[in-house]
Amino acid sequence: MLILRLFLILVTLLLVLSGGMYVFTRDRRYLKFAWQILRFAAVLLLLFAVLFVLERYVLTGWRVLL
């Protein structure tokens, strides 16, 4: 969980910095970068959620059957 918290802090920091750079420079590549970060973070969080559900319910249920 510590790694997940550090990842969320890093993503938040990158999004805030990218948004700030867009406000100061009006360069749209910073918005594109922020969008890429957001998509990558969403995919990675979805992967963690699937692995958590797999560990929590499927493997625990499998242990009950054996």
| DSSP helix fraction | over 70%
Describe the main β-sheet briefly. none
Shape: elongated
Low confidence ranges? none
Instruction: Write the H/E string, N to C.
Output: HH
Number of strands: 0
Average pLDDT works out at: 91
The Cα radius of gyration reads: 18 Å
Structural domains: how many: 1
Strand content: under 5%
What is the tally of helical segments?
2
Distance between the termini: 29 Å
Alpha-beta classification: mainly alpha
Characteristic terms for this protein:
mainly alpha; 66 residues; elongated; 2 helices
How would you describe what is shown here?
It is a single chain. This protein has helices at 2-25, 29-65. Helix 1 runs antiparallel to helix 2 (29-65). It is elongated. It has one domain (2-65). It is mostly helical and 66 residues long.
TL;DR of this structure?
The chain is an all-alpha fold. The chain has one domain (2-65).
Please specify the SSE layout and strand pairing.
Blueprint: H1 2-25, H2 29-65
